[in-house]
Design goal:
The complex is a heterodimer. By secondary structure, chain A is α/β, with parallel strands linked by helices. Helices cover 44% and strands 14% of the residues of chain A. Chain B contains 16 helices and four strands. The chains are: A alpha/beta, B mainly alpha.
C-alpha cells in the first residue's frame, strides 16, 4: 500500500509537469532589467515639471529594444524624471513588442506609456485602443515636423507625439566612388551609372532589401504611390509607378542592385558593411550598426537621388502612446511631455543616433552630427510608413511579387495586378 | 465423522460477505465497497494537474472556437467583440481574395511538409531503435543519449544555427560535392524541379488554368520548396530522438521468448523483423505516427525563427499564419478560424491513420 501511494504521488507530479510544460511556447514577454547606472546622456535636463507633483506614482513604459545603448539612454532620462517629480517610472523592454502589447491591451491592463510604430497606428486607433492627445498636454505641438504629426493622425485625430524619426538615405563608400571617378549620384541616371561602374566580380553596386519599404521610395520619386492620402483607393496602376518599378527591376536584373540574401547578408546594412556592395539605401539605424560592427568602414550619406518628379523618401517613426484604458492618463501624458518637449527630444537624440522630431532642435542636433545632414533634410519630403488596419497582407503580396521579379519569374505588370487585387480585397 | 449421523447442514457463505475468508482478495470484484476516503484522495492528487490542463488547455481551446465566430481585433477586451457568424470561415474557404490564397498556400506547404517528415522521422527512429535494441551493442546508454540529445535543445537556437549552416556559402554547401544550392532562397518546388529536369518547364494548360481556393492546380502540385526541405531536415533531426525512445520502449516490451521461439522455428533475421517485430510494434507505430501528424501540422517555431514564410511564402504554414493574422493584422477572429480548421484537418488525418494501421481490436 505504501508503494502504491508513493507511485501515485510520483505520477501526480509527472502529470503536473506535463500540464505546465505545454507545447513549447515561443514568444514570451521579457521585462527588462532597469539599470541603475548613471545616465548615459551625461546631461542634466531642466524641465517645466513642478517637483513632487507625481509623488509615488508608478509608471510603466513598454518598448521594443534595439540594443543596450537605447535602453540605457532611456533609463537615464527616466531617472532624471523620477528625481524631479518623485514618480517611479520604469522602462521595460519587450522581446516581442507586438504580442506583449496586444495581450496587455486585450487584458485591460495596459502599460502607462508604450511605443507605437506608425505602421501599427491604424490598427490600434481603429480598434479604439489609443487615447488621443489632450488639448493642453503637450508644449508647442506645431514645432513637430508636419509629416511626422501626420504619420500619427488617423481619421483626423492626432494620437501621439513622435519620439524621434529616421529616414532613408543613400549610404555609400566614398573611397569606392572616388576610385571610380564618380560624383555622388543625385538623379536616377547618375545612380544607374554609378551602380554599373561600381559593380565588380566581388562587389555589387548597391544592396537594397526587396520589399515595399525600400522599393517605394522610387515610386515616390516618380510621383506615384500605393494608395491615396487617406488610404481608401489603391493608386498603384499608373504609368509613373510602372516607370519607377521597371527602373528598379532592370537594375536588379542587370546585377547592379543586389538582394542582401543573395550575397549571404542578413540585411542591406550587413552587405554594405562587409564590402559586398558599394552603396546601400538604408536608414539612420545603420550608423549605430556600422560603428559597432564594422568600426573601420568609411561611409558617408547623401540624400536619395531625385526621380522624374523630385525627391522622395520614407520616414520611419515611433511615438509614445497612451491607452484608452490607461489607469492614470494625466501622469502618462506628463511623462510623455517630459520626453518629447524640446529639451527631452534633444537629450534623447544626443545619446542615440536617431533624429529629433522637432524642427527647433534640428540645428543643434546637426551641429553634433554634421555627417548625418542628408537624413535630416529628408524629413521635408518624407512619406509616412503606415496604411490602414489589416493592410499587412497587401504589403506581403507586393513583397512576394517583388521577389519574384528579382528571381526572374515575375514582371512588373504582374506585381501591379496582384497588389491592386489584394489591396482592393482589404480596403474594399 | 460418526457413521450413521448426517453431517450438520452448512450455511452457504455469501461471496464477498463478512464471513467469506477470501474477502480481502475479492475486495474489488462485483460491487466494490471502497473506503469512502479513497475517491476523494484520488481527486485531490489529480487536482493540480487537472486544474493546469483545464485552465491552460481546455479553456483556451473553447475560447479559440468561440473567437472564431466573432470579429475580434485582439486589441480590446475579448467581450467587446461583435459576433460575426460564419464570416471568418467564409473568408478563409469561400471568398476569393488574398486571405484565402494565403491560407491555401499554407495548407499546401504544410501538407508536403507532413508527407515528408512523418515517414522520414518514423522510419529513422524505428531503425535506430532496432539497432540500439540489439543485445550485442556496447555503449547503448551513450548512443541513446546522443540520438536523443537534439530533442532537448531549444528549437529557436537550433533553427538559427541551421539557417547559418544552410547559407549559400555555409557549411552544408561546403561539404556537398555537388554545385552550391541556395537552400533558403529557392522557392521552386521539388516536384516542379523534377519535372523541369524531365523537360516540363511550365505547367500544362489544364493545370494552370484551373484554380482551387485561389491557387492554380499547377501550384498545388509544386511540392515542398527547397527552403522547406531544409526545414524538414531540421525537424526530422530534432524529433527522431524522442520517437526513437518510444520505439525502444515498445521493442523492449516484446518478450525475448517470442524471438527465441521464432529462431527455433527456423526464421531468418529478415523474416523475424517483418513477421514478428513489426506486427508486434503496431500499436507503437500507430502512436508514433499520430504524434508525428499532430506535431508536423502545427509547425511554428522553425518558421518564426527561420524564415517567416519566405522565400515567396513557400514556408508559410497555418500555425504561422495564425500568428500573423492575430498579431500583425489584428484579426484574431480569423486566426481562431484557422485554428479550428487546422484542428479538423488533424482529426481527419489521425482517423485515416487509425484506419490504415488498425490492428484487430487490440487498442
Amino acid at each position: 500500500m505504501r508503494r502504491n501511494k508513493s507511485l501515485v504521488l510520483i505520477l501526480g507530479l509527472a502529470l503536473i509537469m506535463v500540464a505546465c510544460g505545454g507545447g513549447g511556447a515561443t514568444t514570451t514577454t521579457a521585462a527588462g532589467e532597469t539599470t541603475t547606472t548613471t545616465a548615459a546622456t551625461g546631461e542634466t535636463t531642466t524641465t517645466a515639471m513642478t517637483g513632487g507633483e507625481l509623488e509615488g506614482v508608478e509608471l510603466r513604459i513598454w518598448g521594443g529594444s534595439s540594443g543596450e545603448a537605447e535602453d540605457a539612454a532611456l533609463t537615464g532620462l527616466l531617472e532624471v524624471f523620477n528625481a524631479e517629480t518623485g514618480a517611479n517610472a520604469v522602462f521595460e523592454a519587450q522581446a516581442d513588442m507586438t504580442t506583449a502589447l496586444n495581450t496587455a491591451l486585450a487584458g485591460g491592463e495596459p502599460p502607462d506609456v508604450f511605443y507605437v510604430d506608425s505602421n501599427n497606428l491604424p490598427d490600434l486607433a481603429a480598434a479604439g485602443a489609443l487615447a488621443p492627445v489632450p488639448e493642453t498636454a503637450l508644449s508647442e505641438p506645431d514645432d513637430i515636423y508636419p509629416s511626422l504629426r501626420e504619420a500619427f493622425t488617423f481619421d483626423g485625430t492626432w494620437y501621439c507625439p513622435p519620439k524621434d524619426f529616421s529616414t532613408l538615405g543613400l549610404v555609400y563608400d566614398p573611397a569606392a566612388l572616388e576610385a571610380a571617378g564618380l560624383e555622388v549620384p543625385t538623379t536616377w541616371e547618375e545612380l544607374a551609372v554609378a551602380a554599373e561602374a561600381l559593380t565588380t566580380d566581388t562587389q555589387a553596386g548597391l544592396a537594397m532589401g526587396v520589399e515595399y519599404p525600400r522599393w517605394a521610395v522610387f515610386m515616390f520619386q516618380a510621383g506615384a504611390d500605393l494608395t491615396n492620402a487617406d488610404v481608401s483607393v489603391i493608386t498603384l496602376d499608373t504609368p509613373e509607378a510602372r516607370e519607377a518599378l521597371q527602373f528598379v527591376a532592370d537594375q536588379y536584373s542587370a546585377g547592379h542592385f543586389v538582394r542582401p540574401s543573395d550575397v549571404d547578408a542578413g540585411w542591406a546594412g550587413e552587405a554594405f558593411g562587409q564590402g559586398k556592395a558599394a552603396m546601400t539605401i538604408e536608414g539612420n539605424w545603420i550608423v549605430g550598426y556600422l560603428d559597432q560592427t564594422f568600426p573601420d568602414k568609411t561611409w558617408a550619406v547623401a540624400e536619395l537621388p531625385a526621380g522624374p518628379a523630385g525627391p522622395g523618401t520614407f520616414a520611419f517613426t515611433v511615438c509614445y502612446g497612451v491607452a484608452e484604458s490607461a489607469a492614470n492618463p494625466d501622469a502618462s501624458w506628463a511623462l510623455i511631455e517630459y520626453l518629447t518637449n524640446a529639451q527631452g527630444a534633444l537629450a534623447w537624440t544626443t545619446a542615440f543616433n536617431v533624429m529629433p522630431a522637432r524642427a527647433s532642435v534640428a540645428a543643434e542636433w546637426l551641429a553634433d552630427h554634421p555627417e548625418l545632414e542628408a537624413f535630416v533634410t529628408g524629413a521635408d519630403y518624407a512619406h509616412r510608413w503606415g496604411f490602414a488596419p489589416g493592410f499587412g497582407d497587401v504589403i506581403s503580396v507586393f513583397n512576394d511579387q517583388a521577389n519574384a521579379i528579382v528571381d526572374g519569374d515575375g514582371t512588373v505588370d504582374e506585381l501591379i495586378e496582384e497588389t491592386v487585387a489584394a489591396g482592393e480585397d482589404v480596403i474594399g | 465423522m460418526q457413521p450413521g449421523v448426517a453431517p450438520a447442514p452448512v450455511e452457504p457463505i455469501k461471496v464477498g460477505g463478512p464471513a467469506d475468508p477470501n474477502r480481502r482478495r475479492l475486495k474489488y470484484r462485483g460491487r466494490a465497497r471502497l473506503d469512502p476516503k479513497e475517491p476523494f484522495i484520488g481527486w485531490l492528487f489529480s487536482a493540480p494537474a487537472l486544474t493546469g490542463l483545464i485552465v491552460f488547455l481546455v479553456i483556451p481551446i473553447i475560447a479559440a472556437v468561440w473567437v472564431s465566430f466573432r470579429d475580434w481585433n485582439g486589441l480590446t477586451p475579448i467581450f467587446d467583440s461583435t459576433p460575426a457568424g460564419w464570416a471568418n470561415f467564409q473568408e478563409l474557404l469561400l471568398d476569393d481574395g488574398v486571405r484565402r490564397t494565403d491560407f491555401a498556400t499554407s495548407l499546401r506547404n504544410n501538407f508536403y511538409y507532413v508527407l515528408g517528415v512523418v515517414p522520414a522521422q518514423t522510419f529513422i527512429a524505428f531503425v535506430i531503435a532496432v539497432v540500439l535494441n540489439q543485445k550485442f551493442l556496447k555503449g547503448k546508454g551513450f548512443f541513446r543519449t546522443a540520438y536523443y540529445f537534439p530533442s532537448i535543445t531549444s528549437s529557436i537556437a537550433v533553427t538559427l544555427i541551421f539557417v547559418f549552416l544552410f547559407q549559400t556559402n555555409g557549411a552544408i554547401n561546403l561539404v556537398l560535392p555537388i554545385q552550391d544550392i541556395d537552400w533558403l532562397d529557392n522557392p521552386r518546388g521539388l516536384i516542379h524541379n523534377f519535372l523541369g529536369v524531365l523537360g516540363v518547364q511550365d505547367g500544362p494548360a489544364f493545370l494552370t488554368e484551373r484554380e482551387f481556393m485561389g491557387l492554380e492546380l499547377w501550384d498545388w502540385l509544386a511540392g515542398p520548396s527547397v527552403a522547406m526541405t531544409a526545414f524538414m531536415m531540421l525537424v526530422t533531426w530534432t524529433t527522431s530522438g524522442t520517437l526513437m525512445l518510444i520505439f525502444l520502449a515498445g521493442l523492449q516490451n516484446i518478450s525475448p521468448s517470442v524471438e527465441e521461439a521464432a529462431i527455433v522455428d527456423g526464421a531468418g533475421p529478415i523474416q523475424r523483423f517483418f513477421r514478428i517485430t513489426i506486427p508486434l510494434m503496431r500499436p507503437t507505430i500507430f502512436f508514433v505516427v499520430t504524434l508525428g501528424l499532430i506535431g508536423t501540422w502545427q509547425v511554428f517555431d522553425q518558421i518564426y525563427a527561420g524564415s517567416g514564410g519566405d522565400p515567396r511564402k513557400t514556408t508559410l504554414t497555418p500555425a504561422y499564419l495564425i500568428y500573423v493574422q492575430a498579431f500583425t493584422n489584428s484579426k484574431a477572429g480569423l486566426a481562431g478560424a484557422i485554428a479550428v480548421i487546422l484542428f479538423v484537418i488533424i482529426m481527419i488525418f489521425t482517423l485515416i491513420n487509425r484506419r490504415v494501421i488498425r490492428d484487430t481490436g487490440d487498442f
